[in-house]
Amino acid sequence: MLRVEQVTKRFGGLTAVDHITLNVGDTGITGLIGPNGSGKTTLFHMITGFYTLDRGRIYFQDRCISGRPPHTISRQGMVRTFQHTRVLPFMTAMDNLLSAAPDQAGERLCSVFFRPGRIRREEEAHRERAKEILEFVHLTPLSHQLAGRLSFGQQKLLEIGRVLMARPRMILLDEPTAGINPTLIRHLVNILRGLTARGIRIFLIEHNMPLVAEICEKVFVMDSGRLIFSGLPAEARQDARVIEAYLGREDRAA
Ligand SMILES: Nc1ncnc2c1ncn2[C@@H]1O[C@H](COP(=O)(O)OP(=O)(O)O)[C@@H](O)[C@H]1O
Ligand SMILES: [Mg+2]
Is the CB–ligand 1 distance for residue 161 below 6 Å? Predict the structure, then answer.
């Protein structure tokens, strides 16, 4: 479904992503792990069009998407969340979802004048969908709460809700469980499983290894911009290069 071929990204003298080639097939949940600074977020930025590539190509559903802007890529069905959550704090949870609805006819002037009925129907449809999504991410009781007043973990669920408004085929999540409590982590796991049951593919960056082992069918491991492992999570935990990458980092930090 997603193919990354020979992708490289440099920042000055630093090669943040170094000739990465990987394939995210039609499996449910795929993980991307690696020590801090290994290039995971940079790779996600390139896949979703937020960074340009210095080398390589990226294909999604057999179409080349590298070089396309983020909104074009999301319209093709690939959306993402960010390592640092982005919700609109002064809007309610419901309005956060409505504002994330794609292609709002109401914003096109000629529609406002000539097709008010169509706009009303579209708004109704968005509102119905937003309600379903709030239910799905366990936020129905908080529909009218300002997003800025939700807990950090609830904001993360809301952010997932926002990207679902676009009816994606694949979702990239950057550290979805970082900083959220164990109860919400279980909610999140249920949500991710629910998404895969609906045929939506998940590619996630995650530090919580037991969680990766629990939910990912396949995992990629990066270290210093390179891909050092791809395979089953259980195998990754026993792989000498993976162990060395994590322990080496800890030694250096100590
Ligand atoms: N916009 C940027 N400008 C310069 N250096 C960057 C930028 N983004 C990331 N880097 C560097 O690239 C490397 C990889 O970063 P990142 O992709 O955020 O790693 P990870 O998500 O695996 O922790 C790090 O050394 C980081 O400092
Ligand atoms: Mg990161």
Answer: no
Asked whether the beta carbons of 190 and 184 are under 8 A apart, the reply is: no
Q: How far is the CA of 239 from the centre of ligand 2 (A)?
A: 22
Q: Are residues 31 and 135 in the same domain?
A: no
Domain region containing 132: 88-149
Q: Is 244 within the bounds of a domain? A: yes
Q: How many domains would you assign to the chain?
A: 2
For ligand 1, atom 24, the nearest C-alpha belongs to: 37
Ligand 1 nearest-atom number relative to CA 174: 21
43 and 7 in one domain?
yes
Pocket of ligand 1 contains residue 134 by CB under 6 Å = no
For residues 201 and 28, the answer to whether their CB atoms sit within 8 Å is yes
Contact predicate 141/176, CB 8 Å: no
Asked if residue 56 and residue 103 are part of one domain, the reply reads no
Q: Which residue has the tokens 């290039």?
A: 39
Please write the tens of the pLDDT for every residue from 156-201. 999 999 999 999 999 999 999 988 899 999 999 999 999 999 999 9
